[in-house]
Specification:
Blueprint lengths: L7 H20 L5 H16 L5 H13 L4
């Protein structure tokens, strides 16, 4: 900020507002019951998916390499 010539009082005012706003943003808002339930459903769906086998991953990678436009 000094490189662009921003005055010291303006920098102090900026950081005086920035730091409390940043701290407040880190707190976050509690989830509603609906949001919580939707996240639980998404996690349950992910946990129900089978873990891909090594050969399936290799096959997909090989297919992705050959299908790229040149």
């Amino acid at each position: 900020m000094k490189l662009i010539g921003w005055p010291e009082p303006a920098q102090k005012e900026f950081f005086g507002k920035l730091l409390p706003a940043h701290a407040e943003s880190l707190k976050g808002q509690p989830l509603s019951e609906l949001d919580h339930n939707l996240l639980v459903k998404q996690l349950e769906a992910m946990f129900a998916m089978p873990v891909p086998r090594r050969r399936d991953v290799a096959r997909r990678r090989a297919g992705a390499r050959t299908s790229r436009p040149r």
